[in-house]
Each structure stands twice: as structure tokens, then as C-alpha cells.
Predict the structure.
Amino acid sequence: MGARFAWMDQARGVAIILVIVHHSMTWTGLFGLQVPVALVAFDDIVSPFRMPLLMFLSGMLVTRSLAKAPGVYFAGKARAIAWPYLLWSVIFLAGTGTLTIVLVPNVLLFPPTYLWYLWFLFAYYVAAWVIARLRIPLLPVAVLSLAASAFAPEDYRISRFFFLFTFFAFGWWWSSSGIVTRGSPRTRAMAIATGLAAGVVVAGITVAGHPTRYEAGYAWGVLALIAALALMLPRVGSGRRSAALEFVGRNSVVYYVTHYTLIWALDVLLVDTWGWSEPWVVWAAGVVVAVICASALCLLRQRWAPIGWLFVWPAGTARVRASA
């Protein structure tokens, strides 16, 4: 990946780590332990921004993907998004003993697990191809999707689907509009400061006890913060200090599909089998083990092809990256 995309890997890496932190906290609570107040407060602060940032970054890759022939485009998305979604849905449901005939159709139609993000992402890429084919303007699509999220039902995450598509479309527009190259340095600095301030306001509202995650009424602050990051981070550059985050970002699908199942299995061992009861320790162990195991799988799949098949459907000698 070119140097100009390093910041995207960094941002995606941060978002994925925050997802792992959140889900380890979630499992700590589900296993009957009292989640520390400090963890809850931190999670509240970042919760409005995690998934919108991931969707924005995915949207930024649409233009490059659409340059491919339709067959290559859809085959790539099926191998790198649909396949790990289906495989790891079955792995998680079977591992937790919840795989039933009733749930099988839901895996295809209404994602019943933590892997809903990949289901959304595949649907968004299908929608993107249609939008590009029909030459529909992106900003009106984003606005209409946000409006739809305010009225759509919460059932089956329908409201969330429309809400996050706003950020996917916004990322697509951002990468294709050339907006980053416009304006003076002073204008960009003011935009960055305004966006960061807007993000702080939304985070503060969340901490105060008002729901902001996936809420259309607070999308302005989330969009503003993401825009500020998109203006600021490309100037930070890449180096040894950011290498680990970039690695996570480049291999985000591995961390995403494995972490939840790994944390669940670990907590079964720590809490149910060994009787551990210190929530900070259980939470931290979940984060550390999930990151280490996923990192090991990333390295192993570079050396042993069958490991790679857990995350990307094999396509002869062609390698399709998970971030395609």
C-alpha cells in the first residue's frame, strides 16, 4: 500500500483495537463480573466513533475497487468479505452451542452475531456498484440514508444499517471529490480544530448519559471528527512507532473475525473453569490474548496457505487482500 494510505491503516488499526477493547469489556460483564466504571466511561467516549470511522475508511476504497471489472469486483468482495463472514458466523455459533436451523437463514438475511459489520460492508459494496452504475450523486445518497436511519426501526439493525451507510458514502465521496487538496493551510487548520471540537462535544454528551451512538441527531459531530482526522492524519506520516497499528489495520479482517470468539473462549476458561473474579484482569487478558492470537494468525497465513483460507476464499494463485 502506498505511503498516502498509511494513515488509513493507522486509523483502522485504532478502530479495531477499540472494538476489541469494547467486546472484552462486554464479555467481562456477560460472565457476571462488575465492569469497572473507568472502562465504561472510556467506552462511552469512543463508542459514537468506532464503527462510523471503519465505514468511512472502507468507503474511501470504493473508487479504487470500482476500477476493476464487475466480475473481479464482486468476486473480490465475496472472497474477502462474504466468505469470512459466513465461515466465522458458523464457527462462533457452533462453538457457543447456538447454531440452529432457525439461525441459518438469519446468517444470510439478518446477521445474528458480532459479524454484522461484514454483512453491512458487503451490502454497501453491492449498493456502491449500483450507485456508480446509475451515476447517482453521493452526497444526496448520504443525506437520505441518514434521514432514513432516524425513522427506520431498530429491529434487525435496520436503523444502524442506514446510519452507517451514511459514513460509507461520505468516505467514498471524500476520496473521489479531491476535497483534501482544496483550501489554504489556515482553512484546513480551522476545519481540523472545528471537527475535533465537535467530536469532543458529542463525546461529552455521551458521557453525560445521553445516547449518541448510531443516533442521526449527533451524526454532525461524528462526521466532523472523522473529517478532521482525515485532514490531519495524512500529514502525520508513517514510521516505526505506527508500524504495529498499520499492521492491525492492514489485517483488520483477521482481528475482527477472531477476537470475539477468542475472548469468549478465554473467559469460559478464566471465569467459569478457573474462577477468576477480578474484572480488570479478565478484561485485560481478553484484549491481550485476542491481539496476540490474531497477530500470530496474520503471520502464519503469510507462510501457510490453509490459514489464509480462514479469512479469504482461495482463488488460485491470486491473492485478494481482506481490505480490498
